[in-house]
Design brief:
Structural class: alpha+beta
Number of domains: 2
CATH class of the largest domain: Alpha Beta
CATH topology of the largest domain: Chitinase A, domain 3
Strand content: 15-25%
Order of helices and strands: HHHHHEHHEHEEH
Helix content: 55-70%
CATH architecture of the largest domain: Roll
Shape: globular
Largest sheet: 4 strands, antiparallel
Strand order of the largest sheet: 2-1-4-3
């Protein structure tokens, strides 16, 4: 339960679960605190799911509509490597980091050794894998990153991109198109997966809404 909750949070933040844990750990949130938060959130959703089962259960028409939407979608996934530079690191100022990022971009664009730069400068969790991020679909990328990648050829690098807490330089290793046109709407396994996904989304929205109402009512009572 906790693993799936962390995976959901990581997906929202558009990072892997391992990277999510690493980032919040650097911000002073312990592993136990994260697990406690996720467990409480998942238990609350389960309470809501049981109490409002009919409201969170998707209809066949909703499942059909979601599968039809999936069939229409064709996206792009990128196999990426990265150099992650914290804005401040080992006495380096933000201005120094920005200058370093610009210099690295120039060197790498001219054929510099990306793996060597990763080993020397990157502080991202992916550094232990030589900077390899793996495959990332477009819909999990921030807009500015997706735009930057869309114009690259395989082997090229992006300009320095400012992200939360630092600067990243990405190298495009591979590109592939993702299509879902071959999905069978009558496939039982597919329908169960879509049903679960839609139910989770509806439960999350309902749980968040009820929590906001409870907080509002509590404030009114306190006043």
């Amino acid at each position: 339960m906790i693993a799936s909750g962390v995976e959901e949070l990581a997906k929202t933040a558009k990072v892997t679960p391992e990277e999510f844990r690493s980032v919040i750990g650097k911000r002073g949130v312990s592993e136990q605190a994260l697990n406690d938060m996720v467990e409480a959130e998942m238990l609350w959703r389960e309470v809501v799911r049981r109490q409002f089962a009919r409201r969170v259960e998707p209809t066949d028409a909703e499942i059909d509509a979601e599968i039809a939407l999936m069939q229409q979608q064709t996206g792009v996934s990128y196999h990426l490597a990265e150099i992650g530079l914290p804005l401040k690191d080992q006495g380096r100022s933000e201005a120094d980091t920005m200058a370093l990022a610009d210099r690295l971009h120039g060197e790498l664009s001219a054929g510099g050794d990306f793996a060597k730069a990763v080993k020397r400068y990157s502080r991202a969790p992916s550094a232990k894998r030589g900077g390899d991020v793996g495959w990332v679909p477009t819909n999990r990328l921030p807009t500015e990153v997706a735009i930057a990648l869309s114009s690259l050829e395989v082997g090229q690098v992006t300009r320095p991109i400012q992200v939360s807490g630092g600067i990243t330089i990405l190298k495009l290793l591979e590109r592939k198109e993702d299509g879902a046109s071959g999905l069978d709407p009558s496939d039982a396994e597919l329908r169960n997966k879509v049903r679960t996904s839609l139910s989770n989304e509806q439960t999350a929205r309902l749980a968040d809404g009820l929590l906001q109402e409870l907080r509002r009512d509590a404030l009114i009572e306190m006043r």
